[in-house]
Specification:
It contains eight helices and no strands. By secondary structure, it is mainly alpha-helical.
Length: 179
């Protein structure tokens, strides 16, 4: 499985790296298309209501950096989650096929949008991939037990002893009560 991860991550990250770098060099083309999404997002998050070119540059920088992290296997889960979060508004802005009137262009934009959806699915799978190790939630719940090996053994032993004592009291009570 490790070989598949080493091959799949760069393949999944490649479009984000190249697209992010391309958009960084020429943000004007994407900024014009992103204008409607910037307005909508700006209404909900006032800090992002600024210049569309600047927002496009920030988004493309995030995509390129997170793509490089994913491709190299450095913080791959965080990188995949970051790419997934950046992909949604980008897809809505660039491939809004529902606004296109011409049938051929609409079909092309729909195909690109569906491709972005499939990439989103792959990124979500990559974000959930724990390499067969326990998840972060599991590790945080059991962090204390791993730091203190005596407590890790004592807690289950105390619980088992308490359970056995309770059962013994119940049996004793039933025997005493039945005489």
């Amino acid at each position: 499985m490790a070989v598949i991860r080493k091959l799949a991550r760069p393949l999944l990250a490649a479009p984000f790296i190249t697209g992010g770098l391309r958009t960084l060099r020429r943000p004007e083309a994407v900024a014009e298309v992103a204008q409607p999404v910037v307005r909508v997002v700006g209404k909900r998050v006032p800090a992002l209501a600024g210049d569309p070119r600047q927002l496009v540059r920030v988004t493309s920088s995030i995509q390129a950096a997170a793509g490089l992290l994913l491709a190299t296997g450095r913080a791959p889960r965080l990188a995949a989650l970051t790419l997934a979060a950046a992909l949604v508004p980008t897809s809505l802005a660039v491939h809004a096929f529902w606004t296109v009137e011409e049938p051929e262009e609409r079909a092309r934009q729909r195909a690109h949008f569906l491709t972005d959806l499939s990439a989103l699915g792959g990124l979500l799978i990559a974000a959930a991939d724990t390499h067969g190790k326990p998840s972060l939630a599991y590790r945080s719940r059991h962090a204390l037990d791993h730091r203190h090996p005596v407590k890790a053994v004592r807690r289950p032993a105390e619980a088992a002893a308490a359970s056995t004592a309770n059962r013994a009291k119940a049996v004793a009570a039933s025997l005493t009560g039945s005489r």
